[in-house]
Design goal:
Strand 2 and strand 3 form a beta hairpin. By secondary structure, this protein is α+β, with helices and mostly antiparallel strands. Strands 4-3-2-1-6-5-23-24-9-10-13-22-14-21 form a 14-stranded mixed β-sheet. The chain has a four-stranded antiparallel β-sheet with strand order 12-11-17-18. Helices cover 12% and strands 27% of the residues.
């Protein structure tokens, strides 16, 4: 694997892609780390804030504001949408952000998080193919949904009136085993004029969070669909746990109800299987890996945040030029994982 600096890119060539390894660390909070040119490891955060839409903190975009309007390099703030770090932002960030912004990479990046500390996942800067062993080009089977703009930033660092630069998608409904989730105000799934609501993606924390009324309806339907499995005392931070002694396994994890995040139409949905919906907390106990995030409207600001555990061994492509997200759903279904990238070969 070859790394180049922005200066080298200007004087030599523009590569079609750049790849970085991603490792999972579980000492304290779960984090996903990558590194550039053997520098200090950087925390990978898909959804952190360096404004990619029009912002006083970034050079002017050459096109109208939209997710990923970063055709000029941002002056890095404490966090950016691909890597978050508390180090020398100008130094460590320029390599990735400048390359990310180069026409040669078509303003696309893809993230594939590993599920194990013993293996590496991968971040691709550029278009496919995204080849994983055994000879599977994941880019050929991606499903696409628009990236949408929250008109009000949800980040800690912002200018007044600035739209959010985080990655939002339009979840229109949720299904469990094909049954539509009900019992909550469905307007919570959309973003209102004040920037509250909707669904975004972030990898800096481990488990997907939901606004209280959505979470309660979600847990109620899930437990109803898994009524044959005994419940046990919940283990924090989870609200519902099960006795896993007599549960078997499938190619895509434990045999539990499928969860579908329905997007722009009934035929477009992100399916979450047992490997991503459940967390095995000890030998006999597994928990539903979703967490109550408080009551709307004051808290939370975003009503669903899809987090790292739910995207492990899923490949997500952020096509910033076209403002769309490509997603694979679980790679386990295709008999591969994010750990199956060969770093000794060409991406």
């Amino acid at each position: 694997m070859t790394f180049i600096t922005p200066a080298e890119a200007k004087t030599s060539f523009r590569p079609k892609a750049l790849v970085l390894p991603v490792s999972k660390h579980t000492s304290g909070a779960i984090q996903y780390l990558t590194s550039i040119k053997q520098r200090t490891p950087l925390t990978l955060d898909i959804g952190a804030e360096c404004s990619l839409a029009r912002s006083k903190r970034c050079d002017e975009c050459l096109s109208p504001p939209r997710p990923g309007c970063n055709n000029n390099t941002c002056t890095l703030m404490p966090l950016n949408p691909v890597i978050g770090s508390e180090g020398n932002f100008e130094e460590v960030g320029q390599d990735v952000i400048s390359l990310h912004s180069t026409d040669g990479f078509k303003r696309k990046f893809a993230v594939c998080l590993p599920s194990s500390r013993r293996s590496y996942g991968v971040v691709f800067f550029g278009d496919g193919p995204y080849n994983l062993l055994p000879s599977i080009d994941v880019s050929k089977s991606l499903i696409y949904t628009p990236l949408i703009i929250n008109p009000v930033t949800t980040g800690a660092n912002y200018e007044e009136g600035e739209p959010s630069s985080e990655y939002f998608i339009n979840v229109t409904s949720i299904k469990i085993n094909g049954k539509v989730l009900s019992g909550f105000n469905t307007s919570l799934l959309t973003i209102d004029k004040d920037g509250y609501g909707g669904t975004k993606i972030s990898s800096v924390n481990p488990y997907t969070v939901m606004e209280t009324s959505i979470y309660n309806a979600f847990v109620n339907l899930f437990t109803k669909e898994l009524s044959g499995v005994p419940r046990v005392t919940p283990v924090e931070p989870f609200g519902v746990c099960f006795n896993s002694t007599n549960l078997g396994s499938t190619r895509v994890g434990l045999p539990v109800p499928n969860i579908d995040l329905v997007l722009q139409s009934e035929s477009v949905y992100w399916r979450i299987f047992g490997a991503n919906s459940m967390v095995q907390v000890n030998q006999d106990v597994l928990c539903l890996g979703f967490v109550d995030n408080g009551q709307s409207p004051s808290n939370p600001r975003t009503n669903i945040v899809i987090r790292a555990h739910q995207i492990e061994n899923n490949l997500l492509q952020f096509d910033l030029a076209s403002s769309r997200l490509g997603f694979s759903s679980s790679l386990l279904f295709r008999q591969t994982t994010c750990a199956n990238f060969n770093f000794t070969s060409v991406a």
